[in-house]
Specification:
Layout: H1 2-19, E1 30-34, E2 43-46, E3 52-55, H2 70-79, E4 86-90, H3 96-99, H4 102-108, E5 111-116, H5 154-165, E6 169-172, E7 178-181, E8 184-191, E9 194-195, E10 205-206, H6 222-225, E11 229-234, E12 237-241, H7 247-254, E13 257-258, E14 265-267, H8 279-285, E15 289-292, H9 302-309, E16 316-321, E17 336-338, E18 351-355, E19 360-365, E20 371-375
Parallel strand pairs: 3-4, 4-5, 5-6, 12-14, 14-15, 15-16, 16-17
Antiparallel strand pairs: 1-2, 1-18, 2-3, 7-8, 8-9, 8-11, 10-13, 11-12, 18-19, 19-20
The structure holds zinc ion.
Length: 378
């Protein structure tokens, strides 16, 4: 009897092993994975039909950093769903923390169509300028004790990006353009500094939170303001993924009328940094679930978090990292994928969302399996 039990356990282990112990289930809903790329950009969507979209390719390779490079993290996560070729890769903008891993990623994973906003709008400063090339926050300062990276400007990353694209199919996103990816629909609401001219269906309400809202001169680098911003719909659920779109572009989208409408899931813009996430945007979107791709010391700004926490409908605020600068914001460790205080301890756990057609959204902390289900779409 004992040996039978042992044999059965072994058989189970082998079966699990052959499928990959950490292999997530693909169907029946849409999978959205906020991939831990250390405060850079990397969000994956896989439809029940197996169609895939990746938003951004994160930080450039950082030799000497403990753990895997961003491109490996992204490619391994995609493959863990049984996907061998990525259908769409959307680059929101050309800052190093969103495009730094692009050339290496293309070497590791076949990609169908590349989508972006077109030309880089943050050229190098003129020679002799007091601002050293790439010194803006948009250049992506190392966080969490990472070694310094080679200094490449935004224009430099853009040139590497263009070279890597080669013969790939290439689509320039325009506000109002839509993409059907399996049963998921992507609508671009902003790109290259322009926003949709008309409200999306069901939107267009006045937004009182715009009254008296100050402007914001600080963009963190012009490319942030040029981000491709998307509303993604699947069944009854609406998701906002705005890249690093800045405060003043938020205003164009949601002031004086809310052209976007409410959403259910909000991928916190710009890692939760203060140049984005205006109170008017929070009042317009009123998300139920917030997912923040922050770093150990990057993003998670107290005032911006507060705006969203108080926007009216938030039931779950999930983070990729503990924020060592603002521990008072953290809440339960179960809702933080990587509650570590230094980069060498980080094990790259992701937050995974399983979204069903009926509006059920389950967020899973891949570190410990802790999960909560929210009713959205109503
Ligand atoms: Zn960023």
């Amino acid at each position: 009897m004992k040996s039978t039990v042992l044999f059965s356990s072994l058989a189970l282990l082998c079966a699990a092993g052959s499928a990959g112990l950490a292999a997530p289930q693909r169907g029946p809903g849409l999978q959205m994975i906020s991939i831990d790329v250390e405060g850079s950009g990397g969000t994956l969507f896989i439809t029940p039909e197996g169609k895939s979209l990746l938003l951004d390719t994160g930080n450039p390779p950082r030799p000497g950093v403990v753990g895997k490079d961003t491109a490996d993290v992204l490619a391994d996560t995609i493959r863990s769903f049984g996907v061998k070729k990525l259908d769409y890769l959307l680059t929101t903008h050309y800052h190093s923390d969103h495009v730094g891993g692009f050339p290496a990623f293309l070497e590791k994973m076949p990609v169908g169509t590349i989508v972006d906003h077109g030309e880089n709008r943050q050229p190098d400063p003129p020679p002799g300028s007091s601002t050293p090339p790439g010194a803006g926050r948009g250049a992506g300062a190392p966080s969490g004790g990472a070694p310094a990276r080679p200094r490449i400007t935004t224009e430099g990353y853009y040139q590497l990006y263009l070279k890597a694209i080669g013969n790939h199919k290439h689509l320039i996103a325009k506000p109002g353009m839509t993409l059907d990816i399996g049963s998921m629909k992507v609508t671009f609401v902003a790109a290259d500094g322009q926003v949709i001219a008309k409200p999306l269906p069901g939107a267009g309400q006045p937004n009182p939170a715009c009254n008296g809202l100050a402007g914001m001169a600080d963009t963190g680098g012009e490319e942030n303001a040029r981000s491709v911003a998307s509303i993604i719909t699947y069944g009854k659920t609406r998701i906002a993924a705005f890249g690093d779109l800045t405060w003043d572009r938020d205003k164009d989208l949601v002031c004086p009328t809310n052209k976007v409408g409410k959403v259910d899931v909000y991928l916190m813009t710009n890692h939760g940094l203060p140049q984005s996430n205006s109170p008017a945007l929070a009042a317009a979107l009123q998300p139920i679930v917030v997912i923040e791709g922050n770093g150990i010391t990057k993003g998670d700004d107290p005032a911006r978090v507060k705006s969203f926490m108080e926007s009216g409908r938030v039931q779950g605020f999930w983070r990729l990292h503990r924020n060592t600068q603002h521990p008072e914001l953290d809440g339960s460790d179960d809702m933080i994928a990587n509650p570590v205080d230094a980069l060498p301890k980080d094990r790259h756990y992701n937050l995974r969302l399983r979204i069903l057609k009926n509006g059920s959204v389950t967020v899973i902390n891949e570190r410990n399996g802790y999960n909560r289900t929210y009713k959205t779409g109503g």
